[in-house]
Amino acid sequence: MPPAQEFIKKFQDIHPLPHIVTTLSRLIADSESTMKDFEDVIKMDPILVSRLLRLVNSPFYGLTQTVDSIGRAVAFLGMKNLHNLVVADALKTIFVSRDTSTVFSKKRLWLHSAAVSICSKMVAERIFGINGDDAFLCGILHDFGLLVEEQVATEKFHRICTTCNNSAALIAMERQEFATDHCEICYSMTLDWNMPITIQEAIRDHHLLSTSVTPSCLTGILQISEYIASQAGHATLPDMTAQISPPLLDHLQANMDEYTVLLEDLPDEMAKAQSIYG
After folding, report:
1. Which SS3 state, helix, strand or coil, does residue 165 take?
2. Labelling 166: which of 36, 40, 109, 195 has CA 20 to 30 A away?
3. Is the separation of the CB atoms in 118 and 270 below 8 Å?
């Protein structure tokens, strides 16, 4: 069994993900899935039903009429928004468990992932004019492999965290210690969850420095967003500096005015997201 798969197997023994995450991922990947299929899955989870109805009726959406049915809520949010909500909710329950290290913080990692996901959606929609749902999901998931390593090989992982200060060093130390890295671990998880190929590849390559990556692809958007989030004080580790592929840095410099506005709006967008995801 490849090292990444071994980590995943051990992690799932500790924290099995809710069955609904896998089921909704499979429905998203199936082009013949209908809203009714999604409704049938959701209605079996009363906690999710409550959260879903509370969300669509929150001030965030500002609807004039109350939505009181699962079907209408699903239709309003759309399949991908619903899926993203469920994935984020499931992962957060794992992120918020008690911290045991002064260097690595699960809360910090959650805030980093939230910032990258929100920034990814903003970059996709504001800069490139494309739907930001997949970019958001990439941001939520991209560093989840770090939490897997922390849970499965706690002491070795904490030792790595105390000695690395940039993403390249982190990847190198992970590979030396574990024969895999957090990108590969999370990539393997997205295969199990039947995520779209573009999401799988973006997560796998989000630390891969390349001269051929384009700013508007998911990998490019994810690297840009992680760089921006880190600049805004939401780094994975306290002294971690994010690295970015050369074409993406050129793109940022050429569009500095647009990204400056985006960075200024990030705190407000984080506050809005907190009203939904907590």
Report:
1. coil
2. 195
3. yes
**Helix, coil or strand: residue 241:** strand
Distance, CA of 124 to CA of 107 (rounded, Å): 26
The pTM of the full predicted model, rounded to 2 decimals, is 0.79
241 backbone dihedrals φ, ψ, rounded to 5°: -110, 135
Q: Strand pairing partners for 166?
A: 241
Confidence band for 274, pLDDT divided at 50, 70 and 90? low
Amino acid in position 120: S
In the chain, what are the domains? 3-17+99-277 (1.10.3210.10)
The tens digit of pLDDT for each residue in 209-232 reads 999 999 999 999 999 999 999 988
Q: Phi/psi at 204 (nearest 5 deg)?
A: -60, -35
Assess contact for 72 and 263: CB atoms under 8 A. Answer: no
CB 58 within 8 A of CB 276: yes
| Residue listed under structure tokens 């992932």 | 113
Q: Reduced to 3 states, what is the DSSP secondary structure of residue 43? A: coil
Nearest C-alpha neighbor of 48 from the set 15, 9, 87? 87
How far apart, in whole angstroms, are the C-alpha atoms of residue 274 and residue 110?
12
The residues, ordered by sequence, that sit 6+ positions from 97 with a Cβ below 8 Å of its Cβ are 106
